[in-house]
Amino acid sequence: MPIYAFRCEGCGTFDLAREVAAAGASADCPHCGEPARRVFTPPGLVRLTKPVRGLLDLEEKSADVPDVVTQMRGRPMPQAHAHGPTPPWVLAH
C-alpha cells in the first residue's frame, strides 16, 4: 500500500498509508483531528543509500547517452589453458 504525505496547518506533516483510490482525499491529522491536505513529494529515491542512488543515476544516464570506453577496466581474464580457453560450461579441476 502506498504511503502519502499530508500537511496539517497546525501540527505539520505526517505520512499515511492508504489505497491508491483514496490518494486524493483529505485525511484527518492524527494529533489534532483537523483535516489535512496531501503534499506532493518526489519519489522515495531520497530514502536510498548513496551508492544505490548513484548506481541508479548511472544506469539511467547510460540508457540515452552511453559512455565511450577508451581503456579496459576491471580484473584481467583468467589465463588460458594449454589447450585453449576453457568454455564457460566446463568446471575447473
Automatic annotation (TrEMBL):
Residues 1-41 form the Putative regulatory protein FmdB zinc ribbon domain. Residues 74-93 are annotated as: Disordered. InterPro entries: Regulatory_FmdB_Zinc_ribbon (IPR013429). It comes from the Bacteria. This is Putative regulatory protein FmdB zinc ribbon domain-containing protein.
